[in-house]
């Protein structure tokens, strides 16, 4: 039982050291991730379109 109390106490101490992000930090991280994912997906769509057109012109 003593080990369980020590474990609980140490978990509580470690959680008190955690710094949780504020709303503005979460919002800016979300916007950054959204922009990066959008740019990468548009880039991959462009590469796919270029390769599709070039391959179809080679085949025909």
Automatic annotation (TrEMBL):
Main location: membrane
Record key words, sorted: Cell membrane, Membrane, Protein transport, Translocation, Transmembrane, Transmembrane helix, Transport
One MF term in the entry's GO annotations: protein transmembrane transporter activity
InterPro entries reported in the protein's UniProt record: SecE_bac, SecE_sf, Translocase_SecE/Sec61-g
Pfam families linked to this entry: SecE
Gene3D superfamilies, alphabetized: Preprotein translocase secy subunit
Keyword Membrane listed: yes
Annotated membrane topology: Single-pass membrane protein
Location(s), subcellular: Cell membrane; Membrane
Annotated GO biological process: intracellular protein transmembrane transport; protein secretion; protein targeting; protein transport by the Sec complex
NCBIfam families, alphabetized: secE_bact (TIGR00964)
Function: Essential subunit of the Sec protein translocation channel SecYEG. Clamps together the 2 halves of SecY. May contact the channel plug during translocation.
Family affiliation: Belongs to the SecE/SEC61-gamma family.
Name of the molecule in the record: Protein translocase subunit SecE
Keyword Transmembrane annotated: yes
Transmembrane residue ranges: 29-59
Gene name of the encoded protein: secE
Cellular component, GO annotation: plasma membrane
Subunit structure: Component of the Sec protein translocase complex. Heterotrimer consisting of SecY, SecE and SecG subunits. The heterotrimers can form oligomers, although 1 heterotrimer is thought to be able to translocate proteins. Interacts with the ribosome. Interacts with SecDF, and other proteins may be involved. Interacts with SecA.
């Amino acid at each position: 039982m003593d080990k369980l109390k020590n474990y609980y106490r140490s978990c509580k101490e470690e959680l008190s050291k955690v710094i949780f992000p504020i709303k503005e930090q979460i919002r800016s991280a979300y916007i950054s991730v959204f922009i990066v994912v959008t740019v990468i997906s548009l880039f991959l769509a462009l590469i796919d379109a270029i390769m599709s057109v070039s391959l179809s012109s080679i085949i025909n």
